[in-house]
Amino acid sequence: MTKTHLAAILPQKGGPFVVGERPTPEPGSNEVLIEIKAVALNPVDYNQRTLGVPPVPVYPAVIGQDAAGVVAKLGPGVASTSPELKPGTRVLALATSFYRDGLPDYGAFQQFALAQSELVIPLPDSLSFEQGAIMPLAVTTAWNAWTTINIPLNTRFTPQDNQAVLIWGGASSCGTFAIQTAKTLGFTRIYTTASPKHHAYLKSLGAHAVFDYHSPTVVSQIVNAVKHDGVILRTAHCVVNGGLQPTLDVLKETKGDAKAKVVYSPPLPPDHPTLENTEIRMNWPPLDPVERDRHFYECFHGWLKDGLRSGSVVPSPANIQVEGGGLEGLNSALEKWNAGVSGTKIVVPL
């Protein structure tokens, strides 16, 4: 195996990336060394490169989250806990330094990266590396949202529970998996918002009703649908910036006297709008490392791995925009992401 590899290195806050060589690390206990074949771009990647937010603890840095590739080497213990992972296995992974104090060996934007085994699962042969790369962070964020507001992963609402959920921003990468995970949880009705061109696709993922967030009457449309369907709507996941106030406007009319819960996936500003008897929490994984690793294992080795095998979970969004240039192309690819995409995930093959 190579002793060095190429990486998109972030020399200082504000970027840009500079491609250079790094020593190829050895996987430690419970770690997998992955030869990266494709990476997907996320808002956090642009923000970390350009703004240093969330804070990057170590410079020079290697950032990135979403990856797919091939297992290069297993660390001690992985063969017993994840026997399906072997050298040569095609995998998808959340390869992130976020839980490793920013250490650059763990960032996805390089030819070889380390990932903890809880966040690595086999990629079915029917899916490309590009399809595999679009899922890890979106799946994690979608499931984190529910546990943030104390809905465990093993929750299964019944039709008698009559529980509905509102997902504001369903066409985003995280939004598509928010819909798929809400379907698994058993919500009786899943309401979401998106541009009209995405409505049919989101219904195919499990949304029961999709509303155009551009409409000046979108709040009353959702409220009327909830009343017509006779369901209880006190739970919401706001996936995108700008959606919190209309989400609260809906809940004000649907929650009755009961407490409502809203999870917010973008950074939650301190001056955010509020609603009486409504808990608003920023999306966050479990803080305890042991609990967090167990949570990740359930998300990946349980729901995602089993769902991809059975076909109950599909890579989403359906539109993948492939940008060339490899590591050298990451700067321009992030600028294209920042210019705006809709219902599309940008992927860069390495």
From TrEMBL:
Source organism superkingdom: Eukaryota
Metal-binding keyword on record: no
Keyword Oxidoreductase attributed: yes
Entry-linked SUPFAM superfamilies: GroES-like, NAD(P)-binding Rossmann-fold domains
GO molecular function: oxidoreductase activity, acting on NAD(P)H
SMART domains: PKS_ER (SM00829)
Domain Enoyl reductase (ER): 15-280
UniProt keyword terms in alphabetical order: Oxidoreductase
Family from the record: Belongs to the zinc-containing alcohol dehydrogenase family.
Name the record gives this protein: GroES-like protein
